[in-house]
Design brief:
The complex is a heterodimer of chains A (about 350) and B (about 250). Helices cover about 65% and strands about 15% of the residues of chain A. Chain A has about 350 residues and is of the alpha+beta class. The two termini of chain A are about 35 Å apart. Chain B is an alpha/beta fold. Chain B has 2 domains: about 130 residues, Rossmann fold (3-Layer(aba) Sandwich), CATH 3.40.50.2300; about 100 residues, OB fold (Dihydrolipoamide Acetyltransferase, E2P) (Beta Barrel), CATH 2.40.50. Chain B is about 35% helix and about 35% strand. Chain B starts with a strand and ends with a helix. The chains are: A alpha+beta (about 350), B alpha/beta (about 250). Chains A and B meet through α5 and α7 of A and α1 of B.
Chain lengths: ~350, ~250
Amino acid sequence: MITRVLQNKQILLYIVLWIAIAVVHFSVLISFYNISWLPAIGDSLIFNTIFAIIGIGLWFAVPYLDLSKHQWYELLSQHFTGLVLSTLVWVYGSSFILQQLFDDRTSYIGFLSGSLTIRFITGTFYYTVFVSIMYMINTYRQLQERHSREAQLFAQLKEAELTLLRSQIRPHFLFNSLNSISSLTMTDPPKAQEMIIKLSEFMRYSLNFPDNSLSTLEKELYHIQLYLDIEKIRFGEKLRFEKEVDSSCLQIALPAMILQPLLENAVKYGVYESTTVSYIQLKVSCSEKMLNIYIENDFDPENVFRKGTGTGLRNVEKRLQTHYGQPGLLNIMKKEKVFIVEMKIPRYVTD
Amino acid sequence: MSQIKVLIIDDEAPARQIIRTYLSDQQDITILGECENGFEGLKAIQELQPDLIFLDIQMPKIDGFELVDVLDQKPEIIFATAYDQYAIKAFEMNAVDYLLKPYSKDRLLQAVDKAKGRMKTAKKEDPIKNLQNHLDDNNQQLERVVTRLGSKITVVPVDKIWYIEAQDDYVMVYSDQGNHLKEKTMKYFEQHLPQGFIRIHRSYIVNISQIISTELYSKDTHLVTLRCGAKLKSSADGYKRLREQFK
Protein backbone atom coordinates (compact mmCIF):
# COMPACT_ATOMS: atom_id res chain seq x y z
CA MET A 1 0.00 0.00 0.00
CA ILE A 2 1.34 3.38 -1.04
CA THR A 3 -0.21 5.06 1.98
CA ARG A 4 2.42 3.34 4.08
CA VAL A 5 5.14 5.64 2.76
CA LEU A 6 6.75 7.27 5.74
CA GLN A 7 5.68 10.76 6.40
CA ASN A 8 8.18 13.54 7.04
CA LYS A 9 7.53 13.71 10.74
CA GLN A 10 8.01 9.99 11.15
CA ILE A 11 11.28 10.03 9.19
CA LEU A 12 12.57 12.73 11.48
CA LEU A 13 11.55 10.74 14.52
CA TYR A 14 13.26 7.67 13.09
CA ILE A 15 16.49 9.58 12.49
CA VAL A 16 16.44 11.08 15.97
CA LEU A 17 15.91 7.63 17.44
CA TRP A 18 18.95 6.25 15.62
CA ILE A 19 21.07 9.20 16.61
CA ALA A 20 20.16 8.47 20.23
CA ILE A 21 21.03 4.83 19.82
CA ALA A 22 24.30 5.78 18.12
CA VAL A 23 25.21 8.10 21.01
CA VAL A 24 24.54 5.34 23.54
CA HIS A 25 26.51 2.91 21.39
CA PHE A 26 29.40 5.35 21.21
CA SER A 27 29.36 6.00 24.99
CA VAL A 28 29.37 2.29 25.72
CA LEU A 29 32.40 1.78 23.47
CA ILE A 30 34.24 4.66 25.11
CA SER A 31 33.49 3.91 28.74
CA PHE A 32 33.27 0.10 28.90
CA TYR A 33 35.61 -1.04 26.14
CA ASN A 34 38.16 1.79 26.25
CA ILE A 35 37.99 2.29 22.49
CA SER A 36 39.57 5.54 21.36
CA TRP A 37 37.42 8.33 19.95
CA LEU A 38 37.82 7.96 16.25
CA PRO A 39 37.15 4.22 15.89
CA ALA A 40 34.34 4.54 18.44
CA ILE A 41 32.64 7.17 16.31
CA GLY A 42 33.25 5.11 13.17
CA ASP A 43 31.92 1.94 14.79
CA SER A 44 28.82 3.62 16.09
CA LEU A 45 28.16 5.44 12.83
CA ILE A 46 28.64 2.50 10.52
CA PHE A 47 26.76 -0.10 12.54
CA ASN A 48 23.80 2.10 13.34
CA THR A 49 23.47 3.67 9.88
CA ILE A 50 23.37 0.25 8.28
CA PHE A 51 20.74 -1.02 10.70
CA ALA A 52 18.74 2.15 10.17
CA ILE A 53 18.69 1.37 6.45
CA ILE A 54 17.77 -2.27 7.10
CA GLY A 55 15.04 -0.93 9.40
CA ILE A 56 13.48 1.07 6.58
CA GLY A 57 13.45 -2.08 4.47
CA LEU A 58 11.71 -3.91 7.32
CA TRP A 59 9.15 -1.13 7.56
CA PHE A 60 8.06 -1.81 4.02
CA ALA A 61 8.17 -5.58 4.48
CA VAL A 62 6.02 -5.74 7.61
CA PRO A 63 2.70 -4.72 5.97
CA TYR A 64 3.07 -7.70 3.60
CA LEU A 65 3.37 -9.98 6.58
CA ASP A 66 0.06 -8.95 8.07
CA LEU A 67 -0.67 -10.75 11.33
CA SER A 68 -4.28 -11.42 10.46
CA LYS A 69 -3.61 -12.72 6.95
CA HIS A 70 -0.92 -15.30 7.57
CA GLN A 71 -0.51 -18.41 9.64
CA TRP A 72 1.81 -18.06 12.61
CA TYR A 73 4.34 -20.57 11.26
CA GLU A 74 4.53 -18.66 7.96
CA LEU A 75 5.21 -15.46 9.82
CA LEU A 76 7.73 -17.16 12.05
CA SER A 77 9.71 -18.66 9.16
CA GLN A 78 9.60 -15.40 7.19
CA HIS A 79 10.85 -13.42 10.12
CA PHE A 80 13.46 -15.98 10.99
CA THR A 81 14.83 -15.70 7.47
CA GLY A 82 14.60 -11.93 7.71
CA LEU A 83 16.39 -11.95 11.03
CA VAL A 84 19.25 -14.15 9.86
CA LEU A 85 19.75 -12.21 6.65
CA SER A 86 19.52 -8.81 8.32
CA THR A 87 21.94 -9.61 11.10
CA LEU A 88 24.42 -11.34 8.75
CA VAL A 89 24.41 -8.38 6.37
CA TRP A 90 24.55 -5.99 9.29
CA VAL A 91 27.37 -7.59 11.27
CA TYR A 92 29.60 -8.72 8.41
CA GLY A 93 28.91 -5.70 6.21
CA SER A 94 29.67 -3.24 8.99
CA SER A 95 32.74 -5.17 10.15
CA PHE A 96 34.05 -5.30 6.62
CA ILE A 97 33.76 -1.56 6.16
CA LEU A 98 35.27 -0.84 9.54
CA GLN A 99 38.19 -3.19 8.91
CA GLN A 100 38.96 -1.27 5.72
CA LEU A 101 38.72 2.06 7.53
CA PHE A 102 40.72 1.25 10.64
CA ASP A 103 43.12 -1.50 9.52
CA ASP A 104 46.01 0.39 11.12
CA ARG A 105 44.44 0.33 14.61
CA THR A 106 45.18 -3.19 15.78
CA SER A 107 43.60 -2.89 19.22
CA TYR A 108 40.30 -1.83 17.68
CA ILE A 109 40.42 -4.52 14.98
CA GLY A 110 41.00 -7.03 17.76
CA PHE A 111 37.97 -5.74 19.62
CA LEU A 112 35.90 -5.78 16.42
CA SER A 113 36.60 -9.40 15.58
CA GLY A 114 36.03 -10.43 19.20
CA SER A 115 32.68 -8.64 19.43
CA LEU A 116 30.85 -10.50 16.66
CA THR A 117 28.83 -12.65 19.07
CA ILE A 118 27.54 -9.70 21.00
CA ARG A 119 26.82 -7.94 17.69
CA PHE A 120 24.65 -10.84 16.58
CA ILE A 121 22.78 -10.74 19.87
CA THR A 122 22.32 -6.97 19.56
CA GLY A 123 21.16 -7.43 15.92
CA THR A 124 18.59 -10.00 17.00
CA PHE A 125 17.42 -7.69 19.73
CA TYR A 126 17.14 -4.72 17.36
CA TYR A 127 15.31 -6.78 14.79
CA THR A 128 12.81 -8.11 17.32
CA VAL A 129 12.15 -4.72 18.88
CA PHE A 130 11.77 -2.96 15.55
CA VAL A 131 9.48 -5.54 14.04
CA SER A 132 7.34 -5.51 17.19
CA ILE A 133 7.05 -1.74 17.14
CA MET A 134 6.15 -1.81 13.46
CA TYR A 135 3.42 -4.33 14.05
CA MET A 136 2.12 -2.19 16.85
CA ILE A 137 2.03 0.90 14.66
CA ASN A 138 0.33 -1.03 11.88
CA THR A 139 -2.31 -2.47 14.14
CA TYR A 140 -2.95 0.94 15.61
CA ARG A 141 -3.39 2.42 12.14
CA GLN A 142 -5.73 -0.31 11.03
CA LEU A 143 -7.76 0.22 14.15
CA GLN A 144 -7.96 3.94 13.48
CA GLU A 145 -8.96 3.33 9.87
CA ARG A 146 -11.67 0.99 11.00
CA HIS A 147 -12.88 3.53 13.53
CA SER A 148 -13.16 6.29 10.99
CA ARG A 149 -14.87 3.95 8.55
CA GLU A 150 -17.32 2.95 11.22
CA ALA A 151 -17.94 6.56 12.12
CA GLN A 152 -18.58 7.32 8.48
CA LEU A 153 -20.97 4.44 8.13
CA PHE A 154 -22.73 5.46 11.28
CA ALA A 155 -23.16 9.01 10.02
CA GLN A 156 -24.57 7.71 6.75
CA LEU A 157 -26.92 5.44 8.61
CA LYS A 158 -28.12 8.29 10.76
CA GLU A 159 -28.67 10.44 7.71
CA ALA A 160 -30.68 7.67 6.09
CA GLU A 161 -32.67 7.22 9.26
CA LEU A 162 -33.45 10.91 9.38
CA THR A 163 -34.52 10.98 5.77
CA LEU A 164 -36.74 8.02 6.39
CA LEU A 165 -38.31 9.65 9.42
CA ARG A 166 -38.91 12.82 7.50
CA SER A 167 -40.46 10.95 4.62
CA GLN A 168 -42.76 9.10 7.01
CA ILE A 169 -44.22 12.22 8.52
CA ARG A 170 -44.30 14.56 5.57
CA PRO A 171 -46.53 12.71 3.10
CA HIS A 172 -49.45 12.59 5.54
CA PHE A 173 -49.11 16.25 6.26
CA LEU A 174 -48.46 17.16 2.65
CA PHE A 175 -51.31 15.24 1.08
CA ASN A 176 -53.81 16.26 3.72
CA SER A 177 -52.80 19.87 3.21
CA LEU A 178 -53.15 19.50 -0.54
CA ASN A 179 -56.60 18.05 0.01
CA SER A 180 -57.55 21.09 2.09
CA ILE A 181 -56.24 23.34 -0.64
CA SER A 182 -58.20 21.39 -3.22
CA SER A 183 -61.31 22.01 -1.13
CA LEU A 184 -60.56 25.71 -0.68
CA THR A 185 -60.04 26.29 -4.40
CA MET A 186 -63.80 25.80 -4.74
CA THR A 187 -65.07 27.43 -1.59
CA ASP A 188 -62.53 30.17 -0.93
CA PRO A 189 -59.96 30.69 -3.74
CA PRO A 190 -58.00 33.54 -2.08
CA LYS A 191 -57.50 31.41 1.01
CA ALA A 192 -56.45 28.51 -1.18
CA GLN A 193 -53.82 30.66 -2.79
CA GLU A 194 -52.60 31.86 0.59
CA MET A 195 -52.29 28.28 1.75
CA ILE A 196 -50.38 27.19 -1.35
CA ILE A 197 -47.87 29.96 -0.75
CA LYS A 198 -47.50 29.08 2.91
CA LEU A 199 -47.13 25.40 2.18
CA SER A 200 -44.52 26.08 -0.50
CA GLU A 201 -42.52 28.33 1.76
CA PHE A 202 -42.68 25.83 4.56
CA MET A 203 -41.68 22.90 2.37
CA ARG A 204 -38.78 24.81 0.86
CA TYR A 205 -37.39 25.60 4.30
CA SER A 206 -37.86 22.12 5.69
CA LEU A 207 -36.56 20.20 2.69
CA ASN A 208 -33.52 22.28 1.88
CA PHE A 209 -31.70 22.77 5.10
CA PRO A 210 -28.38 20.98 5.51
CA ASP A 211 -28.30 19.00 8.71
CA ASN A 212 -25.89 21.15 10.65
CA SER A 213 -26.85 24.56 9.40
CA LEU A 214 -27.75 27.30 11.82
CA SER A 215 -30.75 29.54 11.62
CA THR A 216 -32.07 32.29 13.84
CA LEU A 217 -34.94 32.11 16.26
CA GLU A 218 -36.78 34.66 14.17
CA LYS A 219 -36.62 32.45 11.07
CA GLU A 220 -37.53 29.38 13.02
CA LEU A 221 -40.56 31.12 14.52
CA TYR A 222 -41.61 32.32 11.10
CA HIS A 223 -41.58 28.78 9.76
CA ILE A 224 -43.42 27.22 12.65
CA GLN A 225 -46.05 29.90 12.19
CA LEU A 226 -46.39 28.81 8.55
CA TYR A 227 -46.71 25.22 9.70
CA LEU A 228 -49.33 26.05 12.31
CA ASP A 229 -51.29 28.26 9.89
CA ILE A 230 -51.56 25.29 7.55
CA GLU A 231 -52.65 22.95 10.34
CA LYS A 232 -55.11 25.59 11.49
CA ILE A 233 -56.80 25.53 8.10
CA ARG A 234 -57.13 21.76 8.42
CA PHE A 235 -58.36 21.67 11.99
CA GLY A 236 -59.96 25.06 12.49
CA GLU A 237 -61.05 25.96 16.01
CA LYS A 238 -59.79 22.67 17.36
CA LEU A 239 -56.27 24.04 17.17
CA ARG A 240 -55.50 26.95 19.48
CA PHE A 241 -52.00 28.34 19.50
CA GLU A 242 -50.56 31.00 21.76
CA LYS A 243 -47.04 32.29 21.85
CA GLU A 244 -45.09 34.51 24.16
CA VAL A 245 -41.72 35.48 22.77
CA ASP A 246 -39.21 37.84 24.30
CA SER A 247 -38.27 39.97 21.30
CA SER A 248 -34.71 40.42 22.50
CA CYS A 249 -34.05 36.74 21.76
CA LEU A 250 -34.99 36.83 18.09
CA GLN A 251 -31.50 36.98 16.64
CA ILE A 252 -30.10 34.09 18.63
CA ALA A 253 -28.68 31.28 16.51
CA LEU A 254 -30.01 27.74 16.74
CA PRO A 255 -29.96 24.65 14.52
CA ALA A 256 -32.33 24.99 11.58
CA MET A 257 -35.58 22.99 11.75
CA ILE A 258 -35.15 22.21 15.42
CA LEU A 259 -38.37 23.92 16.55
CA GLN A 260 -40.76 22.57 13.98
CA PRO A 261 -40.54 18.89 15.05
CA LEU A 262 -41.48 19.96 18.58
CA LEU A 263 -44.57 21.75 17.34
CA GLU A 264 -45.34 18.88 14.99
CA ASN A 265 -45.17 16.57 17.97
CA ALA A 266 -47.53 18.81 19.93
CA VAL A 267 -50.00 18.86 17.05
CA LYS A 268 -49.72 15.14 16.44
CA TYR A 269 -50.40 14.05 20.00
CA GLY A 270 -52.61 16.98 20.91
CA VAL A 271 -54.81 18.11 18.07
CA TYR A 272 -54.70 14.97 15.90
CA GLU A 273 -55.81 12.83 18.83
CA SER A 274 -58.33 15.17 20.36
CA THR A 275 -62.04 15.40 19.76
CA THR A 276 -62.26 18.81 21.42
CA VAL A 277 -60.32 22.07 21.46
CA SER A 278 -56.62 21.51 22.00
CA TYR A 279 -54.19 24.20 23.15
CA ILE A 280 -50.56 24.62 22.23
CA GLN A 281 -48.49 27.16 24.08
CA LEU A 282 -45.03 28.39 23.15
CA LYS A 283 -42.89 30.51 25.44
CA VAL A 284 -39.45 31.79 24.55
CA SER A 285 -37.10 33.62 26.87
CA CYS A 286 -33.38 34.05 27.03
CA SER A 287 -30.58 34.73 29.48
CA GLU A 288 -26.98 35.60 28.76
CA LYS A 289 -26.04 31.96 28.39
CA MET A 290 -29.18 30.22 27.26
CA LEU A 291 -32.17 30.45 25.02
CA ASN A 292 -35.12 28.76 26.72
CA ILE A 293 -37.97 27.33 24.73
CA TYR A 294 -41.03 25.96 26.43
CA ILE A 295 -43.82 24.17 24.60
CA GLU A 296 -46.93 22.88 26.28
CA ASN A 297 -49.80 21.02 24.69
CA ASP A 298 -53.02 19.44 25.90
CA PHE A 299 -53.17 15.71 25.63
CA ASP A 300 -55.40 12.91 26.78
CA PRO A 301 -53.41 10.46 28.92
CA GLU A 302 -55.89 7.74 28.07
CA ASN A 303 -54.98 7.74 24.40
CA VAL A 304 -53.28 4.63 23.20
CA PHE A 305 -50.70 5.63 20.68
CA ARG A 306 -49.52 3.72 17.72
CA LYS A 307 -45.89 2.78 17.44
CA GLY A 308 -43.35 5.43 16.61
CA THR A 309 -44.25 7.60 19.56
CA GLY A 310 -41.56 10.10 20.32
CA THR A 311 -39.24 9.50 17.37
CA GLY A 312 -39.49 13.17 16.39
CA LEU A 313 -38.43 14.27 19.86
CA ARG A 314 -35.62 11.76 20.06
CA ASN A 315 -34.29 13.12 16.80
CA VAL A 316 -34.26 16.64 18.14
CA GLU A 317 -32.47 15.41 21.22
CA LYS A 318 -29.82 13.66 19.13
CA ARG A 319 -29.32 16.70 16.98
CA LEU A 320 -28.90 18.93 20.02
CA GLN A 321 -26.40 16.54 21.51
CA THR A 322 -24.28 16.34 18.36
CA HIS A 323 -24.50 20.05 17.89
CA TYR A 324 -23.67 21.23 21.38
CA GLY A 325 -21.92 18.17 22.74
CA GLN A 326 -23.84 18.18 25.97
CA PRO A 327 -26.77 16.06 27.09
CA GLY A 328 -29.92 17.16 28.84
CA LEU A 329 -30.82 20.07 26.60
CA LEU A 330 -34.24 18.63 25.93
CA ASN A 331 -36.58 17.88 28.80
CA ILE A 332 -39.86 16.12 28.38
CA MET A 333 -42.52 16.08 31.07
CA LYS A 334 -45.97 14.60 31.22
CA LYS A 335 -48.30 16.14 33.71
CA GLU A 336 -51.89 15.15 34.23
CA LYS A 337 -53.29 16.46 30.99
CA VAL A 338 -50.46 18.43 29.51
CA PHE A 339 -47.32 17.45 27.75
CA ILE A 340 -44.35 19.77 28.22
CA VAL A 341 -41.17 20.01 26.23
CA GLU A 342 -38.39 22.29 27.38
CA MET A 343 -35.44 22.99 25.15
CA LYS A 344 -32.30 24.85 26.11
CA ILE A 345 -30.03 26.28 23.45
CA PRO A 346 -26.57 27.38 24.63
CA ARG A 347 -25.85 30.79 23.16
CA TYR A 348 -22.15 30.25 22.60
CA VAL A 349 -21.00 27.21 20.81
CA THR A 350 -17.60 26.18 22.00
CA ASP A 351 -15.95 24.46 19.14
CA MET B 1 -84.02 5.60 -8.25
CA SER B 2 -84.52 6.44 -4.63
CA GLN B 3 -82.29 8.82 -2.78
CA ILE B 4 -78.97 7.61 -1.48
CA LYS B 5 -78.33 8.74 2.05
CA VAL B 6 -74.74 9.75 2.64
CA LEU B 7 -72.76 10.44 5.81
CA ILE B 8 -69.33 12.07 5.87
CA ILE B 9 -66.86 11.22 8.65
CA ASP B 10 -63.58 13.10 8.67
CA ASP B 11 -61.79 15.14 11.33
CA GLU B 12 -60.82 17.92 8.94
CA ALA B 13 -63.45 20.45 7.89
CA PRO B 14 -62.03 21.17 4.42
CA ALA B 15 -61.93 17.44 3.73
CA ARG B 16 -65.63 17.16 4.60
CA GLN B 17 -66.43 20.27 2.63
CA ILE B 18 -64.87 18.94 -0.55
CA ILE B 19 -67.12 15.87 -0.52
CA ARG B 20 -70.13 18.09 0.04
CA THR B 21 -69.09 20.35 -2.84
CA TYR B 22 -68.40 17.48 -5.21
CA LEU B 23 -71.78 15.90 -4.46
CA SER B 24 -73.82 19.13 -4.50
CA ASP B 25 -75.08 18.64 -8.08
CA GLN B 26 -75.97 14.99 -7.67
CA GLN B 27 -79.77 14.78 -7.67
CA ASP B 28 -80.01 11.30 -6.21
CA ILE B 29 -77.82 11.95 -3.20
CA THR B 30 -78.86 13.36 0.17
CA ILE B 31 -76.15 14.29 2.63
CA LEU B 32 -77.42 13.41 6.08
CA GLY B 33 -74.64 15.08 7.96
CA GLU B 34 -70.97 15.32 8.85
CA CYS B 35 -69.08 13.86 11.78
CA GLU B 36 -65.72 14.90 13.16
CA ASN B 37 -64.71 11.60 14.72
CA GLY B 38 -65.51 7.95 15.14
CA PHE B 39 -67.70 8.37 18.21
CA GLU B 40 -69.97 10.85 16.48
CA GLY B 41 -69.78 8.66 13.41
CA LEU B 42 -71.07 5.60 15.21
CA LYS B 43 -73.98 7.51 16.73
CA ALA B 44 -74.92 9.05 13.41
CA ILE B 45 -74.74 5.71 11.62
CA GLN B 46 -77.03 4.15 14.20
CA GLU B 47 -79.51 7.02 14.22
CA LEU B 48 -79.55 8.07 10.59
CA GLN B 49 -78.88 4.71 8.92
CA PRO B 50 -76.99 6.00 5.88
CA ASP B 51 -76.60 3.91 2.75
CA LEU B 52 -73.11 5.12 2.10
CA ILE B 53 -70.41 6.63 4.29
CA PHE B 54 -67.25 8.49 3.41
CA LEU B 55 -64.74 7.60 6.05
CA ASP B 56 -61.32 8.99 6.88
CA ILE B 57 -58.81 6.60 8.39
CA GLN B 58 -56.66 8.79 10.62
CA MET B 59 -58.93 10.24 13.26
CA PRO B 60 -58.64 10.94 16.98
CA LYS B 61 -59.11 8.14 19.55
CA ILE B 62 -60.38 5.50 17.13
CA ASP B 63 -59.46 5.26 13.48
CA GLY B 64 -61.67 4.44 10.51
CA PHE B 65 -60.84 0.74 10.61
CA GLU B 66 -61.73 0.47 14.26
CA LEU B 67 -65.03 2.18 13.63
CA VAL B 68 -65.86 -0.27 10.83
CA ASP B 69 -64.88 -3.07 13.13
CA VAL B 70 -67.59 -2.27 15.71
CA LEU B 71 -70.42 -1.62 13.23
CA ASP B 72 -73.19 -4.14 13.02
CA GLN B 73 -75.28 -2.23 10.53
CA LYS B 74 -73.14 -2.10 7.52
CA PRO B 75 -73.54 0.70 5.03
CA GLU B 76 -71.36 0.84 1.94
CA ILE B 77 -68.05 2.47 2.74
CA ILE B 78 -65.72 4.63 0.71
CA PHE B 79 -62.49 5.33 2.49
CA ALA B 80 -60.68 8.57 1.90
CA THR B 81 -57.11 8.74 3.10
CA ALA B 82 -54.05 10.86 2.48
CA TYR B 83 -51.36 8.30 2.21
CA ASP B 84 -51.68 4.87 3.53
CA GLN B 85 -50.25 1.75 2.06
CA TYR B 86 -52.03 -0.23 4.68
CA ALA B 87 -55.33 1.11 3.40
CA ILE B 88 -54.36 0.47 -0.17
CA LYS B 89 -53.54 -3.12 0.60
CA ALA B 90 -56.70 -3.63 2.56
CA PHE B 91 -59.07 -2.18 0.03
CA GLU B 92 -57.74 -3.43 -3.21
CA MET B 93 -59.94 -6.43 -2.66
CA ASN B 94 -63.08 -5.64 -0.76
CA ALA B 95 -63.97 -2.07 0.05
CA VAL B 96 -66.34 -0.26 -2.28
CA ASP B 97 -63.47 2.04 -3.03
CA TYR B 98 -60.74 4.09 -1.47
CA LEU B 99 -59.84 7.58 -2.45
CA LEU B 100 -56.38 8.97 -2.10
CA LYS B 101 -56.44 12.58 -1.00
CA PRO B 102 -56.48 14.89 -2.83
CA TYR B 103 -58.84 13.39 -5.40
CA SER B 104 -60.88 14.79 -8.27
CA LYS B 105 -64.62 15.06 -8.58
CA ASP B 106 -64.60 12.45 -11.35
CA ARG B 107 -62.74 10.03 -9.13
CA LEU B 108 -65.24 10.52 -6.34
CA LEU B 109 -68.24 10.09 -8.63
CA GLN B 110 -66.68 6.93 -10.00
CA ALA B 111 -66.52 5.59 -6.45
CA VAL B 112 -70.14 6.60 -5.86
CA ASP B 113 -71.18 4.78 -9.04
CA LYS B 114 -69.46 1.65 -7.80
CA ALA B 115 -71.38 1.94 -4.55
CA LYS B 116 -74.65 2.39 -6.42
CA GLY B 117 -73.90 -0.73 -8.42
CA ARG B 118 -73.33 -2.69 -5.28
CA MET B 119 -76.49 -1.38 -3.67
CA LYS B 120 -78.60 -2.45 -6.65
CA THR B 121 -77.34 -6.00 -6.88
CA ALA B 122 -78.19 -8.21 -4.00
CA LYS B 123 -75.13 -8.47 -1.86
CA LYS B 124 -73.62 -11.83 -2.51
CA GLU B 125 -70.98 -11.22 0.03
CA ASP B 126 -70.78 -8.88 2.89
CA PRO B 127 -68.05 -6.46 1.91
CA ILE B 128 -67.35 -5.38 5.45
CA LYS B 129 -67.11 -8.89 6.71
CA ASN B 130 -64.65 -9.59 3.93
CA LEU B 131 -62.79 -6.46 4.65
CA GLN B 132 -62.56 -7.34 8.30
CA ASN B 133 -61.30 -10.78 7.51
CA HIS B 134 -58.74 -9.29 5.24
CA LEU B 135 -57.62 -6.84 7.86
CA ASP B 136 -57.49 -9.65 10.38
CA ASP B 137 -55.07 -11.54 8.17
CA ASN B 138 -52.29 -9.07 8.42
CA ASN B 139 -49.68 -9.43 11.10
CA GLN B 140 -50.04 -6.11 12.77
CA GLN B 141 -49.97 -6.34 16.53
CA LEU B 142 -52.85 -5.01 18.49
CA GLU B 143 -52.20 -1.99 20.65
CA ARG B 144 -55.78 -1.34 21.66
CA VAL B 145 -59.12 -3.08 21.39
CA VAL B 146 -62.14 -1.02 20.43
CA THR B 147 -65.44 -2.36 21.70
CA ARG B 148 -68.99 -1.12 21.49
CA LEU B 149 -72.04 -1.48 23.65
CA GLY B 150 -75.06 0.19 22.09
CA SER B 151 -73.69 3.49 20.90
CA LYS B 152 -70.93 3.63 23.47
CA ILE B 153 -67.42 2.90 22.35
CA THR B 154 -64.69 1.83 24.74
CA VAL B 155 -61.04 1.79 23.80
CA VAL B 156 -59.08 -0.72 25.86
CA PRO B 157 -55.27 -0.59 25.67
CA VAL B 158 -53.96 -4.14 25.42
CA ASP B 159 -51.80 -3.84 28.53
CA LYS B 160 -54.96 -3.15 30.54
CA ILE B 161 -56.51 -6.46 29.48
CA TRP B 162 -56.62 -9.16 32.20
CA TYR B 163 -57.84 -12.05 30.13
CA ILE B 164 -60.06 -12.99 27.23
CA GLU B 165 -62.75 -15.62 27.35
CA ALA B 166 -64.44 -17.41 24.45
CA GLN B 167 -68.23 -17.01 24.37
CA ASP B 168 -69.87 -18.67 21.36
CA ASP B 169 -69.33 -16.36 18.38
CA TYR B 170 -67.86 -13.64 20.56
CA VAL B 171 -65.11 -13.18 23.06
CA MET B 172 -65.38 -11.37 26.37
CA VAL B 173 -62.53 -9.00 27.09
CA TYR B 174 -61.95 -8.50 30.82
CA SER B 175 -59.97 -5.40 31.73
CA ASP B 176 -59.52 -2.44 34.06
CA GLN B 177 -62.23 -0.79 32.04
CA GLY B 178 -64.82 -3.50 32.60
CA ASN B 179 -66.01 -6.46 30.56
CA HIS B 180 -66.57 -5.96 26.86
CA LEU B 181 -67.96 -8.27 24.23
CA LYS B 182 -66.11 -8.28 20.92
CA GLU B 183 -67.14 -10.00 17.72
CA LYS B 184 -63.85 -11.72 17.00
CA THR B 185 -62.42 -15.18 17.28
CA MET B 186 -60.00 -16.49 19.88
CA LYS B 187 -57.64 -17.27 17.02
CA TYR B 188 -57.66 -13.62 16.02
CA PHE B 189 -56.62 -12.53 19.48
CA GLU B 190 -54.10 -15.32 19.80
CA GLN B 191 -52.44 -14.08 16.61
CA HIS B 192 -52.62 -10.37 17.20
CA LEU B 193 -52.03 -9.82 20.89
CA PRO B 194 -48.42 -8.99 21.71
CA GLN B 195 -46.05 -11.22 23.67
CA GLY B 196 -47.15 -11.54 27.23
CA PHE B 197 -50.48 -13.07 26.33
CA ILE B 198 -50.78 -16.84 26.43
CA ARG B 199 -53.60 -19.10 25.38
CA ILE B 200 -53.86 -21.37 28.39
CA HIS B 201 -57.05 -23.10 27.37
CA ARG B 202 -59.47 -23.44 24.44
CA SER B 203 -61.51 -20.73 26.13
CA TYR B 204 -58.90 -18.46 27.73
CA ILE B 205 -56.07 -16.14 26.75
CA VAL B 206 -54.41 -14.51 29.77
CA ASN B 207 -52.14 -11.58 30.29
CA ILE B 208 -49.27 -13.28 32.11
CA SER B 209 -48.47 -10.18 34.13
CA GLN B 210 -51.84 -10.71 35.84
CA ILE B 211 -51.06 -14.21 37.06
CA ILE B 212 -50.57 -14.63 40.81
CA SER B 213 -50.34 -18.39 41.12
CA THR B 214 -51.01 -21.73 39.51
CA GLU B 215 -52.01 -24.95 41.23
CA LEU B 216 -52.74 -28.50 40.20
CA TYR B 217 -56.46 -29.07 39.85
CA SER B 218 -56.82 -32.51 38.37
CA LYS B 219 -54.59 -34.86 36.44
CA ASP B 220 -54.13 -32.66 33.36
CA THR B 221 -55.63 -29.42 34.54
CA HIS B 222 -54.14 -26.53 36.42
CA LEU B 223 -55.93 -23.64 38.02
CA VAL B 224 -54.51 -20.23 37.20
CA THR B 225 -55.32 -17.42 39.64
CA LEU B 226 -55.29 -13.85 38.40
CA ARG B 227 -54.88 -10.59 40.25
CA CYS B 228 -58.53 -9.74 39.60
CA GLY B 229 -59.55 -12.86 41.50
CA ALA B 230 -60.54 -14.98 38.52
CA LYS B 231 -59.56 -18.64 38.66
CA LEU B 232 -59.16 -20.08 35.16
CA LYS B 233 -58.55 -23.64 34.10
CA SER B 234 -55.61 -24.37 31.88
CA SER B 235 -55.30 -27.38 29.60
CA ALA B 236 -52.19 -29.56 29.51
CA ASP B 237 -50.98 -27.83 26.32
CA GLY B 238 -51.86 -24.42 27.64
CA TYR B 239 -49.96 -25.04 30.84
CA LYS B 240 -46.95 -26.15 28.84
CA ARG B 241 -47.04 -22.89 26.87
CA LEU B 242 -47.25 -21.00 30.11
CA ARG B 243 -44.29 -22.86 31.56
CA GLU B 244 -42.23 -22.17 28.47
CA GLN B 245 -42.85 -18.47 28.89
CA PHE B 246 -41.30 -18.57 32.33
CA LYS B 247 -38.28 -20.64 31.43
